[in-house]
Structure formats: C-alpha cells, structure tokens
Write a structure and sequence with these properties.
By secondary structure, the chain is α/β, with parallel strands linked by helices. The protein is built from 13 helices and 12 strands. It has helices spanning about 5-10, 15-25, 30-45, 75-90, 105-115, 130-135, 160-175, 185-190, 195-210, 225-235, 250-260, 275-280, 295-310; strands spanning about 60-65, 95-100, 120, 140-145, 155-160, 180, 215, 240-245, 270-275, 290, 315-320, 325.
Length: about 325
C-alpha cells in the first residue's frame, strides 16, 4: 500500500505538504502542487482521510505521543497515560503509547499504517515541529499543551500562565516582597516547552505587577541540585522569603536544603508549588500548591478526540483555570 510518506519522498516535500496540496487547506505553490500530483499519479496513491472514514473501517485505537526526553519526569507521563487509557476504554478504544521523540515523520507513519485513528500529543513546544502534519488533518489530533500559534489545532491544558500568576499573587498577599521561581530542568526551557515557558511568563508578570524583586532559575533534579540552587538563592537574594517550585521531584529535597541552611518553612521561607495535589499534600512540609490536573486533562483530551473522529465540532483551545490550595508551607512574612 502506497503511503503519504512515499509520495512526500518522491515529490521531495514533507508529508504535511502532500496533505495540504491534496486537501487545499493551505496555499501551496503551483510548482509544488504539480510535483505532488505527479508523484500521486506515478505511485497510485489514494488518500483515505487520515483514518476519519466510516466507523467500521477505524482501528478503535488512539495513539498517545508522550516523548520521554531529557528533563521529562516519567511519573508525570505515567499519570497522564493512565488517565488517557482509562478514558479511552470508556469509549471502547485502546491506546498505542509512543514514547520516542515522534516528529512529523513518526506521526506520519502512524497515519499511513492506520495503527491509530487519531493521536493525543504531549510535551508540546511553542514552535513544535509536529504541528504542520497535525494541522494538515492527515492524523486527527488533540494536544495536551498550547503552542505559540494554536490556529487550526485542538488543544487542552492547565492555564500555566495564570498558575504562575496565582502563586505570586498568594505570596504577595502574605506580604512577601522578594520571590524566586525554581523551575523545570534547563533542557525543558531550551526546547521551548510550552507549559514551562508560560508559567515563567505568569510568574514574572505577577511579580512585576506587585513590584516584587524576583528571579527565575531552572534546576535539575536530586538532592545535589537542590542544595546548589538553595545556596545560590540565599547568596544572591538574602532577603528572599517566597519561593515557587515548578519541579515536582525537587520539592522535598529543596525543603531539606533550605532547612540545612538554617531556614525554616514557613517561618523563614514560604513555599508554593505547581504539581499534582497528592505530591504537594505528601511533602515533608505539606505544600501550598496549584494542582496539575493530569486526570482531567487526559480525560478531556480523549473526549475531544473522540468527538473529532465522530465529526462533532470541538473548541480550538481549552484552558483549565488554576486552583490554589493552602497548606502548611506558606505563612505571612515574618510570622
């Protein structure tokens, strides 16, 4: 069976360009369109709508593209995967898990081989290389994450910018004037991962609005990384009294590191986190937190994708509002 990637290779273009040329969804130059049409004729390619044909012809499988890259916390991926699998079974679908860095070619192969009717995409970058294929409609998709330009896509996510703002607003209400964000590992920001970048934007915007002194520091994981970042913050910001942590496995090691430096939580430092509620609640000092609702996000992504496959219109971008739960790690400054 001739695949869209075969046509792309013959025409010397990307699979998404082939899809655009055949569907007319995006403007393509006459020269490119003619090359694609010639390749289609030579190879005898017949498009089938990317798995969106009659229900009887569908695989009843959804793919979950959840790349396990450097800086990705595997337990987070696992929580999302469990929620997607559970929701998919409720719709009588199985789930194909893709954990490699599936780019456009990889997702094109999933569409070509009809292994899955559609795909849920995680670890979304602001300028994600997978977007052209996803926009083409060759493989129906829902993104857990919002790229810089979400036009033509279906996305669902926590409003991470608002989450960053909410953490700072809480600390400002408690009287804290010097705050720091201990963020995700550096490679997450280098990849321009959307959720991490947006949380930094919200943190910085709220700190500026409250006229706070602020700093942002990406950080690796583990006790050594926690000790190094705690020492740096105390050295560079001697008046620091508020910390936001967006690095789930660093929560307990960071609390330990500050206490080893003689700073109690919340007596000397108030700490908030953006992480799943069970992680925050079970920290050595139960942490005030904005919950990352992995179960709700995975479930919503599946429902949106199933609706798309049924031809039901769905919204372009769905952002879940953040909710902050106060626990023992925050208190008024100087309490």
């Amino acid at each position: 069976m001739v695949k869209i990637t075969d046509v792309a290779r013959r025409a010397g273009v990307s699979p998404s360009t082939v899809s655009y040329a055949l569907s007319g969804k995006r403007p393509i130059s006459d020269a490119t369109r003619l090359r694609v049409q010639a390749a289609v004729r030579e190879l005898g390619y017949r498009a089938d709508g990317g798995g969106r044909g009659p229900a009887a012809l569908r695989s009843k499988v959804l793919a979950l593209a959840a790349p396990v890259r450097s800086g990705v916390h595997v337990p987070v991926v696992t929580r999302f995967a469990v929620s997607v699998v559970t929701a998919a079974r409720a719709h009588d679908h199985d789930v194909l898990l893709l954990t490699q860095g599936e780019g456009e070619e990889g997702l094109g192969r999933v569409a070509d081989t009809r292994l899955a009717d559609g795909v849920i995409v995680m670890d979304v970058q602001l300028q994600d290389p997978r977007l052209p294929l996803l926009r083409s409609g060759a493989l129906p998709s829902v993104l857990i994450g919002v790229p810089a330009e979400p036009d033509g896509l279906t996305c669902v996510d926590l409003d991470f910018r608002a989450a960053g703002e909410l953490c700072v607003d809480h600390l400002a209400r408690l009287g804290h004037r010097v705050v720091a964000l201990v963020g995700s590992p550096p490679e997450v920001y280098v990849r321009r991962t959307a959720f991490a970048r947006r949380l930094v934007e919200g943190f910085t915007a709220a700190a500026d609005r409250h006229r706070l002194t602020s700093a942002v520091h990406p950080c690796g994981t583990g006790r050594d990384a926690a000790r190094v970042i705690a020492e740096r913050l105390v050295r560079e910001l001697p008046s620091l009294t508020g910390v936001v942590v967006h690095n789930e496995p660093l929560l307990d090691p960071l609390i330990d590191a500050f206490e080893q430096l003689g700073l109690s939580i919340p007596g000397d430092l108030s700490l908030t986190a953006v992480c799943p509620s069970p992680v925050a609640a079970s920290a050595r000092v139960p942490a005030t937190s904005v919950a990352v609702p992995s179960a709700e996000l995975g479930t919503r992504a599946v429902h949106l994708l199933v609706r798309k496959l049924s031809g039901v219109p769905v919204p372009g971008v769905t952002l879940l509002p953040p909710r902050l739960t106060e626990r023992a790690s925050t208190a008024p400054r100087g309490a």
